[in-house]
Specification:
The structure holds two protein chains of two kinds.
Chain A (H helix, E strand, L loop, with lengths): L2 H13 L7 E4 L8 H16 L5 E4 L3 H4 L7 E4 L2 E4 L1 H10 L10 H26 L6 H19 L12 H15 L6 H7 L2 H20 L4
Parallel strand pairs in A: 1-2
Antiparallel strand pairs in A: 1-3, 3-4
Chain B lengths: L4 E5 L11 H13 L3 E5 L13 E3 L4 E3 L1 H10 L10 H28 L1 H13 L6 H21 L7 H23 L12 H15 L6 H7 L2 H14 L8
Parallel strand pairs in B: 1-2
Antiparallel strand pairs in B: 1-3, 3-4
Helix pairs in contact in B: 1-2, 1-7, 3-4, 3-5, 3-6, 3-7, 4-5, 7-8, 7-9
Classes of the chains: A alpha+beta, B alpha+beta.
């Protein structure tokens, strides 16, 4: 979204409450959806659940083409359409919902830094594995391991990254890790890397249980 | 007895030991970790062909790219992160990702893509340090490389306009600078009293932006308002690089 459009959307967003019929669009599950897109969609779903904002998930084969930016997932809320986690977080904030308001400036900086780390390393890994670039698999796996180690250290024994309350960082990490753990790939090495970190596994299970199963959304498939 | 370590890198100017971010990151890390580097500044006699510096050369190894060079130095027991906790080590990785994704594109743009800056400052500076005829080719190549790097992280289908990308990358960079300033606060370094890898990276990325005199300086102006970041750069320059630096 251009900067001007972003400001405009924020203005309009502020005036209307969250509607009952908000919808999230992603590609069809199964063969069509890419690893990275699946992670992105899960992250947004987790984020909205954490904010207590109901959304209906709709799978469409042409979701990418429906999206204003060409990126999935996107949400259709009232008469506005917003795509990708970053802009969606801003949009939701304009409506008065935020997960990170309670953080101080230093914590906010940390949160953004860790989100970049996840984008940098896990997203890249997912992209590489999708396109099966054999030559770089070793390096990619090492990066994933380093990233998971960092996330595991940062999480420690806390339930969420900033202790008791989840933030968009938790949503993003969940989206990626859950996708990596549950998607069938020809090569198991990526999910094995994540499985080495028990607190990260517990973290995923906790979010799945609390924000998806308990809300009657059923187990994520 | 370790074999001598030689670092080939771009030279200095405007009070800096190097005007090139990646070279500066390595030079700062070496100072912080006590690694005895022999710095070989690229000048008119340099015969390297690809502009890949900084490059670390030892008896048996040639290592390029700052992250790999720092890893190599750590393995040789030159470790500036010795006192960091595991969490601080994790934070380091995260902040470096932030710098590379949010700050670096705008720094590259300021040096290599913004037309006035590139033609009046960057290109002449680099061209004067590269032997002919490479001086005719290499700066242009570096400029294209910078543009590609920016578009790689920012240009997105279905369409991108350089203007749109430019506005976004400067917005992101300013936000990143604010975040760094908040994180640093009144501390001397990012993790207490001794400098570590993260300090080397922040210094490497910020110092050229802070010191090099460009015609188009919107990001520099923003940085100069963040006095703790400026103090951070000046402190490192004064403490670790106090030599007779001629402006090159």
């Amino acid at each position: 979204m251009s900067l001007v459009a972003e400001a405009f959307v924020s203005q309009i967003a502020a005036t209307e409450p969250w509607p009952e019929n908000a919808t999230l669009y992603q590609q069809l599950k199964g063969e069509q959806i890419l690893l990275s897109d699946n992670a992105a969609s899960l992250a947004v779903q987790a984020f909205l659940q954490m904010c207590n904002l109901p959304v209906k998930v709709v799978c469409r084969a042409n979701a990418e083409y429906m999206s204003p930016s060409g990126k999935v997932p996107f949400i259709h809320v009232g008469n506005q359409v917003v795509s990708e986690l970053g802009p969606i977080v801003q949009f939701v904030k304009a409506k008065g919902h935020s997960l990170s308001d309670g953080l101080d400036e230093v914590q906010k900086a940390e949160m953004k830094a860790y989100m970049e780390l996840v984008n940098n390393m896990l997203l890249t890994a997912e992209l590489y594995l999708q396109w099966c670039d054999e030559a770089t698999v070793g390096e990619v796996l090492e990066d994933v391991d380093q990233c998971c180690q960092a996330l595991s250290q940062r999480l420690g024994t806390q339930p969420y990254f900033f202790n008791k309350q989840p933030t968009e960082l938790d949503a993003l990490v969940f989206g990626h890790l859950y996708t990596i753990l549950t998607t069938q790939l020809t090569n198991d090495e990526l999910s094995e890397k994540v499985k080495n970190y028990s607190n990260l596994l517990a973290f995923c299970r906790r979010i799945e249980q609390h924000y998806f199963e308990d809300r009657g959304k059923g187990r994520l498939s | 007895m370790a074999a001598p370590l030689e670092l080939s890198c771009w030279g200095g100017g405007w009070g800096l030991p190097s005007v090139h971010s990646e070279s500066l990151v390595v030079m700062a890390y070496a100072k912080f970790s006590g690694a005895p580097l022999k710095v070989i500044v690229i000048d008119g006699t340099w015969r390297g062909s690809r502009g890949d510096v900084p490059i670390l050369t030892t008896e048996d190894n040639i290592v390029s790219q700052p992250a790999k060079i720092l890893n190599f130095l750590r393995k040789q027991k030159y470790n500036a992160d010795y006192e960091l906790s595991a969490k601080q080590g994790a934070d380091t990785l995260a902040y470096i990702a932030l710098l590379e994704e949010k700050l670096l594109p705008a720094v590259l743009h300021t040096f290599w893509v913004e037309t006035d800056n590139y033609f009046t400052v960057t290109k002449p500076w680099f061209a004067s340090r590269i032997p002919f005829p490479l001086s005719l080719i290499l700066p242009g190549r570096m400029s294209k490389g910078a543009l590609n790097r920016i578009l790689l992280t920012r240009g997105q289908p279905p369409l991108y306009h350089l203007r749109e990308v430019e506005a976004q990358i400067y917005k992101d960079a300013k936000e990143c600078l604010n975040l760094l300033s908040n994180r640093l606060g009144t501390s001397q370094f990012f993790f207490g009293d001794t400098p570590s890898t993260l300090d080397a990276y922040v210094f490497g990325f910020l110092a050229p932006l802070y010191k090099v005199q460009f015609p188009k300086i919107q990001l520099q102006k923003h940085l100069k308002q963040l006095s703790n970041l400026c103090r951070f750069c000046d402190d490192i320059l004064n403490s670790y690089f106090r030599l007779s630096l001629g402006d090159g």
